[in-house]
Design a protein that fits this description.
Layout lengths: L2 E9 L13 H29 L2 E9 L4 H9 L5 E4 L6 H12 L3 E4 L11 E5 L4 H13 L4 E7 L14 H8 L4 E7 L6 H11 L4 E5 L5 H7 L2 H8 L4 E4 L1
Parallel strand pairs: 1-2, 3-4, 5-6, 5-8, 6-7, 8-9
Antiparallel strand pairs: 4-9
Length: 245
């Protein structure tokens, strides 16, 4: 019953031709025309594939400078309930995820290569750290996986009123149960490696098909410079990953 908007983004050639008069402008125009033609061809391929699926859809194509790809995706995403972005080998793909997260106000579903969304989600792991970002991700999960078995996972939880409470994860589990969800709280040790590694190991062990987490609970710049949980999740997970900021 959903309506799908597929966005094909083509990149304009780098406009380094301008300060170099020895390079003919014909080359720049030819590359620009070629980029637009490639986007149009992709739009037609995607539309034909979606037509066979029978879903309500529209396919849009744009050609923009590299720096504008993220903002364009974010502007389009403001009018949707959810953005779905595939992890690719391009080193800049995470910028598209960041733009959608920070500039659209909507959650993002990141799908690694080989992961399938066709069957929906039956078992969901929620990485719970009591943050506002995680709370927004949980709300999004209720929308896209309303009938799933939910596992609230807390890694090395801190007990106390300013942390996870006296029973880590119990308050969230109670709130989710009021929505009719089947909920389990899994408190797990960090063990060797990072919190992300522990979360991914647990998701694999219980056969989860979706991972849910808050994104960039700390400074985005800090995570970019020093690394952090969000970047690790985006890079390491082989499961679809639902993020909200």
């Amino acid at each position: 019953g959903s309506h799908l908007v597929a966005l094909v983004v083509g990149l304009q050639p780098i406009q380094s031709y301008v300060p170099f008069p020895d390079i003919p402008l014909d080359s720049f125009f030819e590359e620009t025309v070629a980029a637009r033609a490639a986007v149009q061809a992709a739009v037609e391929r995607v539309d034909q594939r979606l037509e066979r699926s029978g879903v309500s859809r529209e396919v849009r194509g744009v050609v923009v400078p590299t720096s504008e790809a993220g903002p364009v995706i974010a502007r389009q995403a403001r009018y949707a309930d959810l953005s779905i972005i595939t992890r690719v080998t391009d080193l800049n793909w995470h910028r598209l995820v960041d733009a959608a997260l920070f500039e659209s106000g909507k959650p993002v579903l990141m799908c690694p290569p080989g992961a399938s969304l066709a069957k929906g989600f039956s078992r969901v792991v929620i990485g719970w750290d009591t943050s506002p970002e995680a709370a927004r991700a949980v709300s999004a999960a209720l929308d896209i996986a309303p009938d799933a078995e939910l596992h609230v996972v807390v890694v090395d939880p801190r007990i106390g009123p300013e942390a996870h409470g006296e029973e880590p994860g119990a308050t969230l589990a109670t709130a989710l149960a009021r929505h009719g969800a089947k909920v389990t709280v899994d408190a797990i040790p960090r063990g060797e490696g990072s919190v992300v590694d522990a979360l991914l190991r647990h998701a694999e062990a219980i056969g989860a098909d979706l991972l849910v987490a808050g994104a960039y609970g700390h400074s985005r710049l800090g995570e970019i410079l020093l690394g952090g949980a969000t970047r690790d999740l985006l890079r390491k997970t082989e499961l679809p990953l639902l993020l909200a900021h």
